[in-house]
Amino acid sequence: MNTDETPRARGMLDVGDGNEIYWEEWGSPEGVPAVYLHGGPGAGLGTSRYRNRFDLTRTRVVSFDQRGCGRSTPHASDRSVSLTDNTTAQLVRDVERLREHLGIAAWIVNGVSWGSTLALAYAQAHPDRVLGILLFAVTTSSRREVDWITEGVGMVFPEAWDRLASHAEHAGVGYSRGHGRLVEAYARLMEAADPAARDAASQEWALWEDTHISIGAGGFQRDPRWEDQRFRHAFARLTAHYWSHDGFLDPPILEQIDRLRGIPGVLLHGRRDISSPVLTAWELHRRWPGSKLIIDEGDGHGGTSMVKRWRDANDQFVDPANS
């Protein structure tokens, strides 16, 4: 495996609407192309560990920081940056512009958590450009899923959810329990003129994130990335923006599965994923004849025990004869 910490190629790509996305490439330039789509929305690439999910001697791995986060510009942590041009349809266009920019005919599409939603949306828009799809911690960002992760899962973590909801109730954005969606209240809070209000909301959002992914992840622990205020603000703002609009997906992904006909897919999901229950992965698999569902009984939302299966699945896409 290539242990070089420097990408083989990287750059900034103008994708229109005043946005430039940071992209990078690892592995063999002659290898089978693959694109990795990060989670969030707004998590960015962060470290480059994702590349270890591929055999870099046989794969040309590409990824990028999605609009508004990471090294892409402008950055969503800046409230003056409008999110009007930050939707799933525009992210899909960014993926396609990057493919064209790099001269890639078709590629394996990998997506993690929110990235799995984006991977499915891209594949449904451009099925002829997809060699295979690998989804890890499967989501489709439907209203049911969003309402579960922001409200329903409070049945599992009632103390933490009470804190999250109480903050919104006392923040002066017109939210009260049973009246309106909590995610919409946080979307409004992350657009507040008062920087202290935005910071406080982002802190509460970050605490809730760490809480609802704790099962199957070794228990509650703080993500060190929250110490970076710029990261935390962009993450909370973008996540609330996308989730309050049900991922900007109309019709929902599960209603367009016929567009994936003929594309092979592997769905990796943890049984103990409380944030995104396995029901979504199961429903997707049932409607998608070309898919294979692998459930890890001990893993949660993006745990470590499925990493080998992730790499094995990519290897099978690169060399189907050995699958």
Automatic annotation (TrEMBL):
It is an enzyme of class 3 (hydrolase). The keyword Plastid does not apply. Residues 35-301 form the AB hydrolase-1 domain. Its main location: cytoplasm. Keywords: Aminopeptidase, Cytoplasm, Hydrolase, Protease. GO terms for cellular component: cytoplasm. It catalyses: Release of N-terminal proline from a peptide. It is found in: Cytoplasm. The active site is at S113 (nucleophile), D273, H301 (proton donor). One of its GO terms (biological process) is proteolysis. The keyword Nucleotide-binding does not apply. InterPro entries: AB_hydrolase_1, AB_hydrolase_fold, Peptidase_S33, Pro_iminopeptidase. One of its GO terms (molecular function) is aminopeptidase activity. Its EC number is 3.4.11.5. It comes from the Bacteria. NCBIfam families: pro_imino_pep_1. Belongs to the peptidase S33 family. PANTHER family: PROLINE IMINOPEPTIDASE. This is Proline iminopeptidase. It comes from Intrasporangium calvum (strain ATCC 23552 / DSM 43043 / JCM 3097 / NBRC 12989 / NCIMB 10167 / NRRL B-3866 / 7 KIP).
